[in-house]
Specification:
By secondary structure, this protein is an alpha+beta fold. The protein is built from 21 helices and 21 strands. It has a domain of 202 residues.
Length: 541
C-alpha cells in the first residue's frame, strides 16, 4: 500500500509529482525521453535506464561521461540485485609510483590528469545490465545518445553554469584533450547555444556494435592506452581488458518499518544507513519537519556517520570491519547517546568492533525498478579527453590515499573510496522506492533528509525533494540552502553550528530523483519526483 502522503507542499517549486505506470526520472529531459523511447519500443526499465545513462553522458558532461564509473540497485520483479561498476587502479599504481612522480610528501594521487584515472566502469555496467536483465538489443539502447551526439542539443541552464565555471579552472583547461572537445570556441557554450559532441558518437557506435568489447579490448582501449602513455599515465590495454563489473548483495538497514538498501563498500552508502540507525533512537515524527530541533538531530547523526565512514570504508577486500559491525543496532544506539539536542559537536570515529554525478531511476508496469548512478567525480573528472573519441574520464583515483595505515591506501587493482550511491527502499521485503541524490558527500545526506521527510513526516516525494537542505562539511561547519526558514537557521546557530547560507544548489545540496510505488505497478503505477535544482524531468507513460 502507498504511504499516506500529504500531497500539498509548503515549498516553492516549479515541479509537481508525476503519476504513471512507466516512469523515467533524471536531470535532463532529453535523457528521460531516451528512456521512455525504449519503453515505447517494448523494452523494460533496465533498457530505459541504459538508454538514459548513455544520453546523460552528453546532456550533462559537467557531471559524467563515457569514462565514468557506475553503480546500480534494481528490483527485477522478484528480488533485489546490486552492481558495483567502479574500476580498479592500474597495475602500475603503488605508493612508490606516486612518491617517485610527485615527491615523498605526496598524501594522495593528483586531482587531475591520467594519474587520477582508474579503469572506467560505466560502459561495463550498461553491458552487464543489458545481458542479464535487458529485453531489447543492446545497440538499440544507444540510438538516442548517438542521435544527440551527432545532431546536438541546446546548452541547458544549470549545466551551462557549471560548464562555464569549469572553463575558468586552469588545471582542467590544460588537461590533454579537454579544451579541444569541451571548449571548441575557446569558451563554454552559452545557454541555448547548439552543442554537438560528434566524437562521442564514434565511441557510442563502437560500443553499440561490439557490446562494449571495443571499449575494453579493441580500438577504444588501444586509443586510451596510447593517450595515457603519451601523457605520462600508466593505464594499459591489459588494465582495461581485465575489468569486470561485480554483482553484489546490497546492504540493508531498517528504519521505521522500512528498509534502506545501499551498495556495500567501497561506496559511502553505508553512511546514510548509519545515520538512520542513529536517528531510529529519536522521535522525529513529533518534531516540526523544518524546525531546528529535527534538523539538528539529523545533522549530528550525519556527522557521526561520516566519522565512521571516512575512518573505515574502503575497498571491501581491504576493510578491517564488516558493514554488519558498522550497522549493529547496539553500537548505533550508543552513538546516538553522544548527541546533545542543545549543542553541536565535532565527533570522531567510534569503535564498531565493540558494538561533480548524475542519477536516474526507471520503473515499468511489470514491476521492475532501477536505481542507477554514474559519475566522473569532481565535475568534469580528470579533465582528460581521449582525442577523436570524445571520451572524458573520471578522476576516482583521487579517492585513494598514500598512507599505508589506511584501508584506502592505493594498490594495483584496488577500488578507491567512492562517493556515488544509488538508493532503494523496501517494506516487508516488497519494493517501495528507487531513488538517489547526487552530489559528492551530499549524497548520503540527501538520502537521510529526504527519507526522514517521507517516512517520519509524510511529505510526498516531490515535496521532500523540494524542501531546503543542509550539508555537513568539517567540524561544526555546515552549509544551508537559502530557502531554509530564518528561525531554523537561528536555532542551528544557537546550538553552535557554524552555518554558511549558500545560493548555489547544484553541487552544494545535490539533486534527487524518486520513484515511489503506489500499488500494483500495472494498475496504480508510481509517483515520481525530479529535483528542481537541475535541468531534469520525471517523464511518465
Amino acid at each position: 500500500m502507498p504511504q499516506n502522503f500529504n500531497w500539498t507542499s509548503a515549498y516553492p517549486s516549479i515541479r509537481m509529482p508525476m503519476f504513471g505506470r512507466n516512469v523515467v526520472a533524471t536531470s535532463h529531459a532529453l535523457a528521460a525521453q531516451a528512456g521512455i523511447r525504449m519503453l515505447w519500443k517494448g523494452g523494460n526499465a533496465v533498457d530505459a535506464a541504459i538508454a538514459t545513462a548513455a544520453a546523460k553522458t552528453l546532456t550533462e558532461p559537467c557531471s559524467n561521461g563515457l569514462g565514468s564509473d557506475a553503480f546500480c540497485i534494481l528490483w527485477d520483479g522478484k528480488a533485489l540485485h546490486g552492481l558495483n561498476a567502479s574500476g580498479g587502479a592500474p597495475a602500475a599504481w603503488t605508493r612508490d609510483y606516486f612518491h617517485r612522480k610527485y615527491g615523498p610528501d605526496a598524501a594522495r594521487p593528483p586531482m587531475r590528469g591520467w594519474d587520477s584515472v582508474t579503469v572506467p566502469g560505466a560502459v561495463g555496467a550498461w553491458v552487464a545490465l543489458s545481458e542479464r536483465f535487458g529485453r531489447l538489443p543492446f545497440a538499440d539502447l544507444l540510438e538516442p545518445a548517438i542521435e544527440i551526439a551527432e545532431r546536438g542539443l541546446l546548452a541547458p541552464i544549470v549545466v551551462q553554469q557549471k560548464w562555464a565555471a569549469a572553463a575558468r579552472v586552469p588545471d582542467l583547461v590544460r588537461q590533454p584533450g579537454f579544451s579541444d572537445f569541451f571548449l571548441p570556441r575557446g569558451r563554454a557554450p552559452d545557454v541555448g547555444e547548439l552543442v554537438t559532441l560528434k566524437a562521442a558518437a564514434r565511441t557510442l557506435r563502437a560500443v553499440a556494435e561490439t557490446k562494449g568489447r571495443a571499449f575494453y579490448e579493441g580500438e577504444i582501449a588501444e586509443a586510451m592506452a596510447r593517450h595515457a602513455a603519451a601523457n605520462g599515465g600508466a593505464m594499459t590495454v591489459a588494465d582495461l581488458s581485465a575489468y569486470r563489473p561485480e554483482w553484489v548483495t546490497p546492504t540493508a538497514k531498517d528504519y521505521r518499518g522500512h528498509t534502506l538498501h545501499e551498495i556495500p563498500p567501497s561506496g559511502q552508502g553505508i553512511a546514510a544507513q548509519i545515520a538512520l540507525g542513529i536517528l531510529q533512537n529519536f522521535d522525529l515524527a513529533s518534531l516540526a519537519p523544518d524546525g531546528p530541533e529535527a534538523q539538528h538531530l539529523q545533522i549530528e547523526a550525519m556527522k557521526l556517520a561520516f566519522a565512521d565512514t571516512y575512518r573505515y570504508v574502503a575497498d571491501s577486500r581491504a576493510m578491517d570491519l564488516t558493514p554488519e559491525q558498522m550497522l549493529d543496532d547496539a553500537y548505533l544506539a550508543a552513538r546516538a547517546r553522544l548527541i546533545d539536542p542543545r549543542r553541536a559537536q565535532d565527533f570522531g570515529a567510534g569503535n564498531p568492533v565493540r558494538g561533480g554525478t548524475i542519477y536516474l531511476t526507471a520503473a515499468d508496469e511489470s514491476g521492475m525498478m532501477v536505481s542507477f548512478i554514474q559519475s566522473n567525480f569532481m565535475g568534469f573528472g580528470s579533465g582528460v579527453v581521449v582525442p577523436g573519441w570524445g571520451l572524458s574520464l573520471q578522476n576516482r583515483g583521487y579517492g585513494f590515499v598514500l598512507d599505508p595505515a589506511s584501508p584506502n591506501c592505493v594498490a594495483p587493482g584496488k577500488r578507491p573510496f567512492h562517493t556515488i550511491i544509488p538508493g532503494f527502499l523496501t517494506k516487508d521485503g516488497a519494493p517501495v522506492m528507487s531513488f538517489g541524490v547526487m552530489g559528492g558527500n551530499m549524497q548520503p545526506q540527501g538520502h537521510v533528509q529526504t527519507l526522514v521527510r517521507m517516512i517520519d513526516h509524510g511529505q510526498n516525494p516531490q515535496a521532500a525533494c523540494d524542501a531546503p537542505r543542509w550539508r555537513v562539511n568539517e567540524g561544526l561547519a555546515i552549509n544551508a540552502e537559502a530557502t531554509m526558514p530564518a528561525a531554523t537557521l537561528d536555532g542551528l546557530l544557537a546550538r553552535g553550528h557554524a552555518v554558511e547560507v549558500i545560493d548555489d544548489s547544484y553541487q552544494d545540496f545535490g539533486a534527487g530523483q524518486f520513484i515511489w510505488r503506489m500499488g500494483d505497478p500495472g494498475i496504480e503505477g508510481y509517483v515520481a519526483a525530479s529535483d528542481p535544482r537541475r535541468d531534469g524531468q520525471a517523464a511518465v507513460w
